[in-house]
């Protein structure tokens, strides 16, 4: 006897009478899937390949990440190489002109006797790192002796540098060394060298971020969906190192007595601050895009479709 079929449709179930004399069987009703929308230039045969392509928003964000990383890397290298973190100039009314510029790895001086900047490595352990620093407010006579006409000979041997101030001259003497010339604590040279090391590390992080972003752009769908976490992590490390460098320099100029009246922050310090601001703004935008689901929206849409068996 041939089987008889009878279907009764409900709102959410399908009732099927397979054979005469048997009760109706209940099966869940299959909900229709949304129609597959192909992107421009895609055919039904290559629909799977088109679905794996990154969205326009993903490409824009990663391209912007690459450009911002290159920009901040250039600014970081400039601030690291240029000896213009701190600058000192004598007043224009002074008969003897003298200028000093400080970089993270060198110091340059020029005067009437030497019109061009002459640079040397900075800081040097035996020349710049002896003694302890003190607050610039502790301006004392035994550290800075002002002579209007003649300079008395010192009874002890100390390094000194002549610089004009107002209508007279200033003898900039190294602090008196303690017994054995030992130093303790996190002093001037430690802060300055730490600023240089963090700036160099930020260059390394910037190069790694460039290669990582490029690999994400040419990578598969998984890289494009989760690569923003790597980019955000590298940018956060870069902004941390870059900020630590200029924070240490600002701390040194405010606390160390070798930066006497007339010293001021110069170009490289401001470039470093601008770099940190750019990194922070982009990091905020990247995290906002990641947590709002911009990088995972395309995969969610593809999950709505099932493979046909």
Secondary-structure map:
Blueprint: E1 6-9, E2 13-17, E3 25-28, H1 47-51, H2 56-81, E4 86-89, E5 98-102, E6 106-111, E7 118-121, H3 125-128, E8 144-147, E9 160-165, E10 168-173, H4 188-217, H5 221-255, E11 263-265, H6 267-291, H7 297-302
Antiparallel strand pairs: 1-2, 2-3, 4-5, 4-11, 5-6, 6-7, 8-10, 9-10
Helix pairs in contact: 2-4, 2-5, 2-6, 4-5, 5-6
Percent helix, as a range, is 40-55%
| Integer tally of domains | 3
Please tell me the overall pLDDT: 75
Low-confidence stretches: 3-11, 35-39, 132-158, 174-182, 298-306
Strand content: 15-25%
Largest sheet report: 5 strands, antiparallel
Shape: elongated
For the secondary structure, the number of strands is: 11
Task: Give the strand order, joined by hyphens, for the main sheet.
Answer: 7-6-5-4-11
Transmembrane segments: 59-80, 197-218, 230-253, 273-295
Keywords: Membrane, Transmembrane, Transmembrane helix
Please tell me about this protein's structure:
The chain crosses the membrane at residues 59-80, 197-218, 230-253, 273-295. Keywords: Membrane, Transmembrane, Transmembrane helix. The protein is of the alpha+beta class. The protein folds into 3 domains: 1-31, no CATH class; 51-83 and 185-302, Up-down Bundle (Butyryl-CoA Dehydrogenase, subunit A, domain 3), CATH 1.20.140; 91-177, no CATH class. The protein is 42% helix and 17% strand. The strands form 3 sheets. Strands 7-6-5-4-11 form a 5-stranded antiparallel sheet. The protein is elongated.
């Amino acid at each position: 006897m041939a089987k008889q079929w009878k279907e009764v449709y409900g709102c959410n179930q399908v009732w099927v009478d397979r054979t005469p004399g048997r009760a109706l069987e209940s099966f869940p009703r299959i909900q229709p899937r949304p129609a597959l929308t192909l992107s421009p230039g895609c055919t039904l045969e290559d629909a799977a390949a088109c679905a794996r392509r990154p969205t326009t928003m993903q490409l824009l964000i990663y391209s912007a990440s690459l450009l911002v990383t290159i920009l901040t890397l250039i600014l970081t290298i400039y601030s690291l190489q240029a000896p213009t973190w701190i600058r000192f100039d004598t007043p224009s009314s002074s008969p003897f002109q003298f200028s000093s510029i400080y970089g993270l790895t060198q110091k340059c001086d020029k005067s009437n006797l030497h019109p061009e900047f002459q640079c040397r490595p900075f800081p040097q352990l035996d020349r710049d790192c002896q003694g302890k620093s003190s607050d610039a407010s502790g301006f004392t006579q035994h550290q800075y002796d002002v002579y209007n006409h003649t300079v008395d000979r010192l009874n002890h041997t100390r390094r000194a540098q002549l610089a004009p101030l107002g209508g007279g001259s200033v003898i900039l003497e190294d602090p008196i060394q303690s017994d054995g010339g030992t130093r303790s604590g996190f002093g001037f040279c430690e802060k300055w060298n730490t600023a240089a090391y963090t700036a160099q590390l930020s260059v390394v992080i910037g190069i790694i971020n460039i290669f990582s972003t490029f690999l994400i752009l040419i990578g598969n769908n998984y890289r494009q969906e989760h690569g923003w976490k790597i980019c955000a992590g590298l940018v956060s490390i870069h902004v941390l190192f870059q900020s630590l460098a200029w924070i240490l320099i600002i701390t040194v100029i405010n606390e160390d007595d070798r930066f006497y009246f007339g010293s001021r922050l110069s170009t490289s310090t401001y470039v470093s601050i601008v770099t940190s601001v750019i990194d922070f703004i982009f990091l905020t935008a990247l995290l906002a895009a990641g947590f709002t689901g911009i990088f995972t929206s395309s995969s969610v849409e593809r999950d709505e479709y099932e493979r046909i068996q």
